[in-house]
Amino acid sequence: MTEPGRGATVTLMKTRPILGIDIGGSGIKGAPVDLTAGELATDRFKLLTPSKSTPKNVAKVVAEVVDHFTDQVDADAPIGITVPAVVTHGVTRTAANIDPEWLDCEAEKLLADKLGRPVHLLNDADAAGVCEAQFGAAQNQSGLVIVTTLGTGIGTALLHNGVLIPNSEFGHIEIDGKDAETVASSGVRDKKGLSYKEWAPRLQKYYSTIEALFWPELFVVGGGVSRDSDKFLPRLDLRTPIVPAKHRNNAGIIGAAWLAAQTA
Ligand code: BGC
User: Using alpha carbons only, what angle is made at residue 158 by residues 157 and 160, rounded to the nearest 5 degrees?
Assistant: First the structure.
């Protein structure tokens, strides 16, 4: 693409999309991400997470998702991948809702070896948080933002002046003697067949506990259920403003791709 400059012709390079992949409890979804626009470059492609979700089995499915986009991304470009686990130095440290084989697994290396290209691996909620800070509901927000993803579990991302403090894991805060996500996640709502009205008091308790402990400037709520946020967010009475994630369930894919490009 060209554009007239001052007496010369300036060539504007359009960067090729970077692949983002989100490994979840039920599905593994990916898409090339346009990092200039901060959105998916094409529709996402989703395959089921294998029922025995070991790192090796999951890596096989991730490779199929990558193959699906062969023509749309550079063969040597880095790939951003999220997992629902704490990740430090490329090693997955927890496995709340995935196979225990992920505990202390050199997962980033395993995936990079399988895919034959650089991989940046990070926690799923952290990826969603980074996306919302760069391109979404938390853009230009100063101070502390807490992005929560409501799904099978509760994921959290802590951002201070737009900078991620990784692996916050506030979904596991103990409230009334219970791991919070086992009471308030959207997965629990589904399992118990709770209406939004019935679920709201559980969310109320969760978010009031978090705001009393951390005093954020803003809560952003992501995960699949955020598409129905108008049915439950207005029921919450909080001091902190609370808004739905702009990129909803694609935030993880976008944030992972963005971080992979930054890290490369
Ligand atoms: C995990 C987190 C993850 C969240 C959302 C929790 O059970 O511990 O690492 O971010 O679920 O998937």
Answer: 145
